[in-house]
Design a protein that fits this description.
It is a single chain. About 10% of the residues have low confidence. The protein is elongated, with a radius of gyration of 46 Å. Helix 4 packs parallel to helix 9. Strand 12, helix 7 and strand 13 form a beta-alpha-beta unit. Helices cover 34% and strands 27% of the residues. The chain is an alpha/beta fold.
Amino acid sequence: MGRIVRGVKMLRGVFPVRPGRTGKTGMYLRAEGRPLAAQGIGGVRSSHGAAAPGPKPRKARFLRSKNAPKKFFRLVCAFVLFFVSARGFSQDSRSPLTVRIDQIISGDFPDVRAYAVVEDARGEVVAGLSPGLFGFRVDSLEEVSRASITPFSLREEGVDYSVLVSAGGVMEGEPLDFQKTALFQFMGGMREADRFSLYTIGEEAAPVFEEMPAAGVDPARINSLAADRSQPRLYDSLIGVLRRAPRRGTERKAVIVISDGRDQGSRFTREQLGAVLAEAGVPVYAIGIRVLGTQSLSNLNEIADLTGGSYIYARNLGDIPASLKRIHQRIMQSYVIDLRVRSVRADGLTHTLELTIDERDAYGKGAKTFTAVIVPVPAWVKWAVLAAGVLLVIALVLLHVILRIRKRRRLGITRRRCPDCGRRMKDSWDFCPFCKYLGCGKKKKRREKKGDA
């Protein structure tokens, strides 16, 4: 044992040695955390001259522990938690998209048409998205039917624009002049199929002109707009326009309001306005301008959010034309989605359509309500059913006649008739049984009377 201790003292200058554990084979040493025998030094000589056995390989402390299963389970849970958190972080790191469904047309339910606008975090319209990135849900139920998605700019259909401008007394001067400039620039970007209606906000929506193409608008009518002293009844004016818009034939509609958001003395409340907005289903786009203050601009923002439109605040009066142009671009760069709803039946109730854009680097979701309209049976369908019924009756009558003729032929009854009574006879009969056993005096008298006549 003393030789072992002396040997250890000699090796301290060569290897940083720290004592190990004492086991059944005696004390052994570890250099730099490993047994000496594992480093090629060999066993230490004992007093008998034989090499002392090296240390046995030790199991990992993790596996030697009695709580190894619990530790393993904790390790697996930590790994799963890390994976889920990393995945959630990767999803959160994607740039958000703003998805707005501004109009849904469900008059031919279950065929539904929706118009959607997608914007990035900077408020710029995202165009050119692949149809495979769109996902749909109706009342939280996923729609598996195919949807046709096309950019609105590639279609030839027009838009029915209804624009309300503010022409109150406080709008005299630059506020009204910049609104006129914006209207002229707006008409320059309209297409042939578009229709334009202009109203002023006052005690009611006063029409300047209605349903006019851009080429048919007389510029003098816009230049003739002048400020008056009427109260700006924003809610009344907006409801008046919303009640006129659905009557027009153009399917795609948009209402644009240029105002400072003030409402004075309207007969309709905000709750009544919300009900009319939900019933009309027409998007409202708003441009807020500052004249007397900004405390009423939130009214425009709320109205736009309720209808699926958007709100733009023009910080300066000179920004009104650019803001109106921006709204026009949003409408033109929207997506047209034709979808057949299979998860909901036509019940005349309100349902929610959810639209999801799931891209590798961006994600967004939007929703809007629509009505599952119970479509009445068209008149041509009624006439077709009636005609089919008449043809079916005629076919049944002809079938009955044909079957009766075949039955007579099987019985041997042909066109042979009795010369006295006129009844049909079989070819095998030598005499008429009707005349012989029943008598045919009545028929003879009838024949005589016919012959005399």
